[in-house]
Amino acid sequence: MTRRWLNLAAGALALTMLAGHASAQDMMSGIDLTSDAFTKAEMSRADLEAQLAKLNPGEVLDLSAKSLNGLDLSKMDLRRTKLQSARINKVNLSGANLEGVVLDQAWALNADMTGIKLKGASLFATQLHGAKLDGADFTNARVAGDFMNASMKNAILDGADLSADEKNQSMGLMRGAFKSANLEGASFKGANMARVFLEFASLKGADLTGANLRGSELAAADFSGADVTGVNFDGADVNSAKLGGIKNLAAAKNFDTVKNLDRARRD
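Predicted structure:
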């Protein structure tokens, strides 16, 4: 396969994966995730360190569409890289610094990103199925990727933009998708979560103070112990959502406009 074909395929699939409610199996169809491009690395950590060391002031190392699968890049400072459409499946990026880095359309399936720094980064159509992002810092980042089954316990998403990109609907609805993700104890203070997909997600003990959940899909999500002070629930769908023990619901906004409140769980 040519790199150009891989890039086009990755981009097309990224659009498909964030559109509608297709199953994971259907979304992965058409892409060979067992191929070398998605399982092997075309450079080592030492190679990457050497290239970074050669950068002149102000230069950025463009790793777009590179295959870095399975590498141990833990605790590396990668702020001077660009990882658009890169394949970093099963990579170890725990404790790494990627603040401000472009990761649009990157593949990070089952990656270990525990404690990663992603402040101000761009994750648009990024694929993070099954990734481990416990304690990750997404402060003020653009987070319109697919985090299905990801572990994001105690992650920080304060001021992040997870909302749907309304202008791109002809190509599929691009938004943060967290189906069955573990978001327990995560912080979403002031985050824009309009039309975000949180079906079956666990938000136990999460801090959603001041977040915008307008039109979000919250079916079967667990909000036990979550703080919703000042949260905008305008038009959100709470079908089968667990709302028992939710904190400061009286201080939320537009909760009277939610959909399927009669089907929400209060236990």
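Summary: The chain has a mean pLDDT of 91.
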